[in-house]
Amino acid sequence: SSAVTSTNKIVLNLESLGSLPADEAGPLARYASTIQAQRHDYNGKVLSIRAEDLKSLAIIYDMSPDELTSRLIEWGVLSPGMESIVSSGGD
Ligand code: C2E
Ligand code: C2E
Known about the structure:
Blueprint: E1 10-13, H1 14-18, H2 22-39, E2 46-49, H3 51-60, H4 65-74, H5 83-86
Antiparallel strand pairs: 1-2
Helix pairs in contact: 3-4
């Protein structure tokens, strides 16, 4: 499969994340909190994460990166249009 490109940043909407049920969003919320702590960045409504982190999160959620991206868009955590980040080029 193709490499994840970094022309578009993965930007999480922390307000949407905070309003999701913990049983679904819990692992993602903990991951985001850890990144905020490592950066000492607690003020934002959004958090840019590494493309690599999306791959790690996909493993945590037992999904492909594409599936996780779709889920994050459904949850309102990721803006629509971000599918292209992890797509392999074909529809
Ligand atoms: P690190 O990976 O050794 O990165 C050290 C510093 O390099 C970071 O300090 C940051 O100033 C800069 N840096 C590294 N990669 C990037 C990048 O892609 N974009 C930007 N803008 N800067 C980058 P910082 O931010 O204080 O982070 C400290 C440590 O916290 C990092 O050390 C890393 O271990 C962890 N960390 C922070 N944010 C993330 C993240 O989004 N994902 C992951 N996996 N780790 C993170
Ligand atoms: P990426 O690794 O996919 O990271 C996407 C964005 O997540 C970064 O955009 C930055 O806003 C945030 N980010 C990632 N890691 C860190 C971190 O450790 N600390 C902080 N404070 N923010 C982080 P940005 O900065 O525009 O970077 C775009 C791309 O450029 C990155 O995509 C990465 O591929 C590359 N890059 C930037 N800085 C570094 C670096 O210090 N080391 C490496 N290896 N790559 C970097």
